[in-house]
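step: validate -> pass
step: tokenize input -> pass
step: predict -> running
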Amino acid sequence: MELNKFILLLLFSSPLLSFVAEAICVPRNVSNHEATGPALSFPSSAPIQAPLPPTDPTPSPQASSPSPPVSPTKSKSILPPPSNNYALTKICGLTDHPAECIVAIAPLLTGRTDPISVLKMGMKALHKSFEEATAVAAKLNKDPSSSAVVKDSLDTCLESFDSGMSDLNDALIAISSHDIGKLSTMLSATITYPDTCEEAFAEQPGLDSPMKEMDRKLTTLASINLAISASLYWT
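step: predict -> pass
step: emit ->
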């Protein structure tokens, strides 16, 4: 009886075991990809273009740097060195035209600035100005467009300028001989000659003097020389 129950139980359990075995059996031909499912990936970004190979740019010519500005040439100073400037300034301070005195005499100084040397240079400057005035008056006198009245006045100027140069030569001799009286007389006369020139034009109604500026310069220089000579003292 017991044996029959065991046989019946065995018969009923065999199909169940077979079903269970088939349910848990993994087929050998399934690949790993099918077993694990599709692989995960990040969203692809837009395709990145490979950079173009660098091209050698044509070297542009370098802009030349601007040349440094040329410094203006310094004009030569008309003033003497500082060591002489004080002495000249002091002497010119005795005149009524100290600035004009320095400008006229400084370029002519040779190094000495004692009163006699300064006076000689002042006389030299006046003599040169008489020469310049003579050249201007002579040119105007030869100008065909100059009227007869103008030429008559210019003749007076030419005579006056010539007398002025002659008196300066006599004044130079007076310095050498220490003749202070004659020196004063000659230098005083040089002041009158530019005035004589201007009076020749003033005597003609409505006639303007073309020598006005030059005569003013001559008068100033003559006044400077006379003032310097007044400070001289000879024993």
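step: describe -> The first helix runs from residue 2 to 24.
step: cleanup -> pass
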